[in-house]
From TrEMBL:
Name of this protein: Helix-turn-helix transcriptional regulator
Native source organism of the sequence: Streptomyces catenulae
CDD domains per UniProt: HTH_XRE
PROSITE patterns given in the database record: HTH_CROC1
Domain HTH cro/C1-type: 18-72
Amino acid sequence: MASHVNPTVRRRRLGQELRRLRELKGMTAEEVAERLLVSQSKISRLENGRRSISQRDVRDLCGVYEVDDRRIVESLMQMAKDSRQQGWWHAFGDIPYSVYIGLETEAASLRVYESLVVPGLLQTPRYARAVIPGVLPELPPDQLEKRTQVRLRRQERVEDPENPLRLWVVLDESALRRVVGGHAVMREQLEHLVEMSALPHVTVQVLPYDTGAHAGMSGTFSILEFDATSDSSVVYIEGVTSDLYLEKANDVNKYTIMYEHLRAQALNADQSREFIAAAAKRHADALS
């Protein structure tokens, strides 16, 4: 597969275009489903990019929407073909959050609020190998290593010399206090966090306990943004059995405002680095 083909993003862009064609035709998803003798949920999943789409699906939908321009039809069918190819993460087998990985791989910037653990993109290998089985205690050893390797591979976007991911993290103090894997692992992790936060495209802010109540107390979330104007921002909320992707402008705007409040309440970047370094020293002292 060509490295520039991202099947997740292709499905998303194709779904957006199919929704646009349906709306131009003035049809509801229910009406389209009835014409094609399929379920309404299938049409919805095709449009939101959560379901693989075949070239036959595209052809049938273009027929319903009376798309006469052959170039448009062929372009959409090529996108459908690309969307069925595999991203790098498929080499690791069935990854439950593969949709998110596809979006993260293509994103230009990522804003993360995390309340309990260091975000995966900034984790050290030893911290990752300690935190993953803690979160998923019944995970078999081979699955643990696979999850770890996927997490480390994802981190390549952060340090990509040609196209680094712009990363902004607001981190609750509890993530620095919770001893994951022991004091040696925590010292290494926090020292790595200080180092990464010094990169020009990475910002880490800490929300100390004495901040009190804040906008993130309802749960962690991430906001992904893309360079292509055709790709709207996505709010990602991770769940135990399923994940939530919010793409409606009103939803994204609400979470964007929440994030601005969190950034305003948190320590600034320099203060946060000092705070994290002090926490790393406490773990180092505990080892001596």
